[in-house]
Design goal:
Elements lengths: L1 E3 L5 E5 L46 E3 L5 E3 L2 H16 L2 H7 L2 H4 L5 H28 L5 H5 L3 H9 L7 E2 L2 H11 L3 H20 L11 H24 L8 H10 L6 H21 L13 H15 L1 H15 L41 H8 L2 H19 L8 H16 L7 E2 L1 H9 L7 H20 L4 H12 L8 H7 L4 H13 L2 H21 L3 E7 L5 E7 L8 H15 L3 E4 L8 H16 L4 E4 L3 H7 L7 E4 L4 H8 L11
Parallel strand pairs: 8-9, 9-10, 10-11
Antiparallel strand pairs: 1-2, 2-11, 3-4, 5-6, 7-8
Helix pairs in contact: 4-7, 4-13, 4-17, 4-18, 4-19, 6-16, 6-18, 7-8, 7-15, 8-15, 8-16, 9-10, 9-19, 9-21, 9-22, 11-12, 11-19, 15-16, 21-22, 23-24
Length: 667
């Protein structure tokens, strides 16, 4: 039965009969007056003259005398839902949300233009050498790094929601491309198209939440392992040897097998370039003059800006100098350095990505159909988009200044950008954290800064590709090593140890798995390990047991679980409740204040517990049970299922049950 008082508090006694019924003799209009409002202590102003301030119950269904939901006409409800969705999809707010350029372009001014120009050019000087280097990580000719660095920028200007994101190749995406496509140009381009398509569909269906299943420790372990694998993959170019492989162990094994072929000049150039890049990185952070910016003179500001610009453009400066050195030795019969080789001049041709490969285009020499290509890409079709989203969301959160990040819109933006890149022979890309930091520090104001980055890449393809062929491989390897070595997230270990030591286990497990296994297997292992920890904690909730005295002087046992009652934990909770109740031989109150959810398994266990207590003639009550959870438990109509919401009601319930403590005889 259901009894209420002036504060809408109640005692629910669940019997083997239907409980909640709403009856009425009038016509059904798919709504009902909320009678509970008449018992509320809230003062509701009524201007319309309608009862209860015009507040009404759900207009979707009512409960009939039989306890069944009576819904409105299905066709009418579907039509109303479609109309609401269509109205929402084509509203001005939604259009501006899906086309962010419409929000900032009308307010664009000269100050924004100057900031975007400076930032775009600065990022462009960074992306060109990085694109050439990242193509090597993907196992592709250097030109394909530039092909994937310009058209996606235009797409992101229209659809991107973060001003700091420069769309293009990244170290992690390049390594995943190599492990998925195996250095095949055709498969890499198709992977770019299909990854973009998957990202676009995930955005349309609002699946951006999937990235939430990758926890911080797993993400840190994955990123750290990837950075070490990338550094390892570039050691061969620094040493001037040949060492193929896809995993950390395999690459190092091949390096030691070919260590006797080390080239002295390549090694010297590579190590020197790494040292120079690290020194220039330090120079970018140096400041001259007083610590207070307001006290610095004009000369101080000019020198600081010049030092920052030189340090930020270190990759471009190094590549130009090393290219000049390579050009100097071009006429030598025995060039001391290994060069990246010829790069086709001009822009790439615009064409659809390859959906089949001839025998001349495959590594095996056999033709491959579209299904064969997709089958060979395997799990990379899911892993590459998810990791791209992780990278992009990490950038957006880092520079959002506390504003919410729209993961759905970012999925749409990078998905369309990758689809566009596949038509100009690019491989998968996303936002780069290192270039985003440069973009932000350069004072970017809007996503339009990408257009200047694109312009520099296009100019380099049109006029400078003949000179790129003189760049030594060791210098590009140095660019990559100096950039990704700082991605090893050692700094998170100490705070993780201080806060929750067990989080180190999935992080370390992911790190080791990614080094020993292919990356997609490593990240899946890390996520799986994290899920195991979550399920363990769900199966072993914290439960407090206290012996208290009611206002009427009756002793009772109160048991308080700290989380939801779901299938992994219900047997554990049942055993503890049974053990404590038999040992104490007192009335038992289960405090459900923290129980916000339950399932069918929990309902069956509650039914069994109530029967056990009834057989022992031992009172059992549930305190402060949420209505939604109560509805789940009453689905099985358990006997003697008593719920109360005010502490003073406990004595009344004990009197109704005529409880008398039993003597406990100890032998």
């Amino acid at each position: 039965m259901f009894n209420g008082d002036s504060n809408a508090n109640c005692r629910l006694v669940r019997m083997k009969t239907p409980i909640h019924t709403i009856s009425g003799g009038g016509p059904i209009d798919a709504s009902y007056d909320n009678e509970a409002m008449s018992r509320s202590t809230l003062d509701i102003a009524t201007q319309s003259g309608e009862p209860h301030g015009g507040l009404r119950g759900s207009n979707e269904f009512i409960l009939s005398d039989s306890g069944k939901k009576v819904t409105r006409d299905d066709d009418a409800g579907l039509n109303m839902w479609l109309q609401r969705k269509a109205k929402s999809a084509f509203s001005e707010k939604m259009i501006k949300k899906r086309l962010p350029i419409l929000r900032w372009l009308p307010q664009y001014n000269s100050t924004d233009a100057v900031g975007d120009l400076v930032a775009g050019i600065t990022v462009g000087l960074t992306v060109i050498p990085q694109a050439l280097a990242y193509a090597g990580i993907a196992g592709l000719p250097a030109a394909y790094g530039l092909y994937g660095s310009f058209l996606g920028c235009i797409v992101y200007i229209v659809f991107g929601s973060c001003k700091d994101v420069p769309m293009g190749p990244t170290a992690i995406a390049s390594l995943l491309t190599f492990q998925t496509a195996g250095g095949s140009v055709g498969k890499s381009i198709l992977l770019c198209f299909l990854s973009g398509l998957v990202e676009l569909l995930m955005g349309i269906f609002g699946l951006g939440f999937l990235v939430d299943f990758v926890s911080g420790p797993v993400s840190s372990g994955f990123t750290s392992a990837v950075s070490l694998i990338i550094v390892t993959s570039q050691v061969k170019d620094v040493l001037g040897i040949t060492a193929k492989g896809t995993t950390f162990i395999e690459i190092w094994k091949n390096i030691f097998n070919d260590i006797h072929n080390v080239q002295l000049w390549d090694t010297f150039l590579g190590l020197t370039c790494i040292a120079v890049l690290l020194i220039m990185r330090i120079v970018a952070g140096l400041k001259v003059g007083p610590a207070d910016d307001e006290q610095k003179s004009k000369n101080h500001r000019i020198i600081n800006k010049l030092m920052w610009l030189i340090g930020t453009s270190r990759n471009a400066i190094l590549v130009v100098v090393c290219g000049a050195i390579g050009y100097t030795f071009q006429s030598s019969a025995a060039a001391p350095f290994k060069l990246i080789g010829d790069i086709p001049p001009g822009l790439p041709s615009i064409k659809a990505p390859p959906f089949s490969l001839t025998g001349n285009e495959t590594l095996s020499g056999q033709e491959e159909s579209f299904s064969d290509m997709v089958s060979s890409l395997g799990s990379g079709l899911i892993v590459v988009p998810l990791i791209a989203l992780m990278e992009n969301i990490a950038i957006c959160k880092a520079f959002s200044n506390g504003k919410p990040v729209d993961a759905t819109q970012e999925l749409i933006a990078i998905g369309l950008a990758n689809i566009a890149n596949s038509f100009v022979q690019g491989f998968p890309g996303t936002g780069s954290l290192s270039r985003s930091a440069v973009n932000n520090a350069s004072g970017v104001r809007t996503p339009l800064g990408n257009i200047y980055t694109m312009a520099l890449v296009v100019l380099s393809l049109l006029f400078f590709t003949p000179y790129f062929s003189y760049i030594p491989k060791a210098s590009l390897a140095a660019v990559i090593i100096a950039a990704v070595v700082f991605m090893v997230e050692v700094k998170v270990v100490k705070p993780m140890w201080r806060t929750k030591k067990s989080d180190l286990i999935p992080g370390l497990g992911t790190f080791i798995a990614c080094l020993a296994l292919p990356l997609e297997m490593g990240i899946l292992f890390g996520v799986g390990l994290n899920v195991v920890f979550i399920l363990y904690h769900a199966a072993r909730p914290k439960i407090s047991v206290e012996r208290l005295t009611s206002p009427g002087g009756t002793e009772y046992l109160i048991i308080t679980p700290d989380r939801c009652l779901i299938f992994p934990s219900v047997d554990y909770v049942r055993n503890l409740v049974t053990k404590q109740s038999i040992r104490q031989s007192l009335p038992v109150v289960i405090d459900c204040s923290h129980v916000y959810g339950a399932d069918f398994t929990a309902a069956t266990v509650i039914d069994s517990i109530t029967q056990d207590f009834a057989r022992r003639d031992q009172p059992l009550f549930f305190y402060n049970l949420k209505p939604s959870v109560c509805a789940i438990f009453e689905g099985l109509s358990p006997a003697d299922f008593v719920v109360y919401y005010r502490e003073e009601h406990l004595d009344d319930l004990l009197k109704q049950r005529a409880f008398k403590p039993k003597e406990v005889i100890t032998v």
